Amino acid sequence: MALTDKIKSVTKSPVWKSIFRHDYKDTERNRYLQILSNIWLHLHPTKIARHAVEVKYTWGMGGISFFIFLVLTVTGVVLMFYYRPTDQYAYHDMKYLMNDVPFGPFIRNMHRWGAHAMVITVWLHMLRVFMTGSYKPPREFNWVVGVILLVLTLLLSFTGYLLPWDQLAIWAVTVGTNMARATPLLGHEGPLGPQIGMKADNDVRFLLLGGTQVGPPALLRFYVLHCVFLPVAIGIFLIVHFWRIRKDGGISGPTGKV
Amino acid sequence: MSDEKPEGQGPTAGEGAEAPKPAAKPKPAASDSLGPEVRKAAPAEVGAVPAAKPVPAKPQKKEDGLRRTAAADESETNIWRYSRRDFFAKLGWVSIFSFLGVMLVGTLRYMFPRVLFEPSPLFRAGFPEEYLPGTVSTKWMKDFRVWIIREDGKIYALSGICTHLGCTPRWLEKEDKFKCPCHGSGFYRSGLNFEGPAPRALERLKIARAEDGTILVDRSVKFELEKGGWENPQSYINV
Predict the structure, then answer these.
(1) Tens-place pLDDT, residues B178-215
(2) Is there a contact between B165 and A179 if contact means CB atoms under 8 Å apart?
(3) What Cα–Cα distance (Å) separates residue A42 from each residue in A32, A147, A175, B136?
């Protein structure tokens, strides 16, 4: 008895009531309000269709991909406390994190495994959407947005791969950017590129690397791309992707259930 | 499910004499979750009623240039379609987009630095006498990624960058070939590609005798076999 009284005295206090302005008796209307009038929750639908949780149909891979993306963002920010994107320090900072920081290996591994996992889950999501025909009208444009998201995911993987600045990283990026120089029009060794004045010091490979070789400018550029530019871009397209799903009536379901 | 439909225009000052076309009024979509749309179409119908005179509702004549034909009732003296306000509005938008355009171009240019701190492409490779005839020297591979080959009265410098995807091949003396560890591209001592995925021969680099007799190699000037570069006298030294 004393406990409930104590709780009541807390929940009726001015401090409490200034933070939590009202409570909700369990009515239908209040169930809606709990979602709609909450700043953190109000983007969610107040109700979802029963078929939305049919995992055998949906696989849940889109949601899992988004969850992994959030894990990557959080672990990524945490990793930023111990990493300097310079020629002199990058590899050293990674070694320091792995050996001298408590839970350092854990955070780094979460990030690395999460990155690999997200690539797999987005492909599975794409496969599921294709197999269930969920790209058909009115959802065609959302498929296009999804493909853009796929490309951004792969670019995030590519830029992140360079950051440990070890042999694996440097040569992987060498190979990747050497492919970039063979791009039509934009690369200095691709078709039509040299004809419009592309050289080793002004083509798209130069833009990516900030130089003609994989060196310190490339590391810094890839770091900024990986931590700022690509996450913002993927965030923008995620917003469009989720909005489109809401507008189309939620996740697609088996035939007859929309 | 459709997106928002375009709303009907309200009446503009110069078109009060005309009855708006009733068929063009869109109704708000019933499934729109944003709530009931303001029926901007309604005032137009109300406002047009008192002004509607028995003038046949015909479309306005096509203007030539910026003039338009005077309205039937001649209550207006302004016959130009383009006002001062329109001019300044257009000027404002042009300014905004010019500014944004310049910012965009500036940002793009910003991404291409003028000065690079990469190691100099030039290096000295000792005297020609240090290289025995018929040999491939790997002396400069670690520091400069270049082989010096002396063969048939010529000394030339081969770039140690595999033409496939940029790894560093190895010189295999016993098998008399360069072999790339990445994907297995193989090159003869001349630099010619003969096996594996390499699409072109290894590049030869500009090589010359300096004033003091030493060999000077410039890694920034490349000569490709496929473009006839190996015939270029800058790509070899005669000994």
Answers:
(1) 999 989 999 999 999 999 999 999 999 999 999 999 99
(2) yes
(3) 10, 27, 46, 72
Between chain A and chain B, the number of residue pairs with CB atoms below 8 A apart is 34
**Contacting residues of B for A229, CB less than 8 Å apart:** none
For residue B107, the distance in angstroms to the closest alpha carbon of chain A comes to 12
Angle A100-A102-A104 from CA coordinates, rounded to 5°: 80
Which residues from A are below 8 Å from B165, CB to CB? 174-175, 178-179
| Rounded-to-10 torsion of CA A133, A134, A137, A138 | 170
Instruction: Show the CA angle centred on residue A115, arms to residues A92 and B168, nearest 5°.
Output: 55
Contact: B113, A210; criterion CB under 8 Å: yes
pLDDT tens column, B36-68: 444 444 444 444 455 555 555 555 555 556 666
What are the residue boundaries of the structural domains of chain A, listed by start? 57-247
Please tell me the distance in Å from B112's CA to the nearest CA on chain A.
6
| Residue A206 touches partner B, C-beta closer than 8 Å | yes
**B232, B128: one domain:** yes
Nearest to B165 among A178, A210, A217 (CB): A178
Give the torsion through C-alpha atoms of A106, A110, A111, A114, to 10 deg. 170
pLDDT digits (tens, 9 = 90+) for B86-134: 999 999 999 999 999 999 999 999 999 888 888 889 999 999 999 999 9
Q: Is the dihedral of CA A80, A83, A86, A87 positive or negative?
A: negative
Q: How many domains does chain B have?
A: 2
With an 8 Å Cβ cutoff, is A194 touching chain B? no
Please report whether residue B4 resides in a domain: yes
Does the beta carbon of A247 lie under 8 angstroms from any beta carbon of chain B?
yes
The residue from B65, B89, B114 where one domain ends is B65
The pLDDT tens digits of the residues spanning A182-203 come to: 899 999 888 998 889 888 888 9
pLDDT digits (tens, 9 = 90+) for B138-183: 999 999 999 999 999 999 999 999 998 888 999 999 999 999 998 9
Asked which of B65, B82, B109 is the last residue of a domain, the reply is B65
Strand B122-124 to B170-172 pairing: unpaired
CATH class of A57-247: mainly alpha
Pick the residue of A171, A209, A252 with the most B CBs within 10 A to test the interface with B by mutation.
Answer: A171
For B32, nearest residue in chain A (alpha carbons): A247
Domain that holds residue B3: 1-65
Q: What angle do CA A30, A32, A35 make, to 5 degrees?
A: 110
